[in-house]
Amino acid sequence: MADKVLELVEKMYIEFSQKFDEMGNEIKNNRDEIKKIGAKIDGEVMPKIDALFDGYKQNRDNIKEIKHDVKELSRKVDKQELEIKVIKNVR
Predict the structure, then answer these.
(1) Tens-digit pLDDT profile for the chain (91 aa)?
(2) pTM
(3) How far apart are CA 30 and CA 37, in angstroms?
(4) CA distance linking residue 68 with residue 83, whole number of Å
(5) How far apart are CA 60 and CA 66, in angstroms?
(6) SS3 category, 91
């Protein structure tokens, strides 16, 4: 009876050892994959995000400049319209 229990424990130990080895390999593979993904994020994704952000800032600055130019042109048009009205009334 003791021999059978010992065989069963030994068999369970071998199976558990194999499962732990498999799990260890899976963990190592997952860790390697995570490192690859992290490197890809750092090397490819982050520079693209930085470039997009720079483009956004540049667009924002250009829009501000265009708004300023439009206001300035509107002011000039208003002034010219007033001058035209004054000229027409003088005649």
Answers:
(1) 888 888 999 999 999 999 999 999 999 999 999 999 999 999 999 999 999 999 999 999 999 999 999 999 999 999 999 999 999 887 6
(2) 0.57
(3) 10
(4) 23
(5) 10
(6) coil
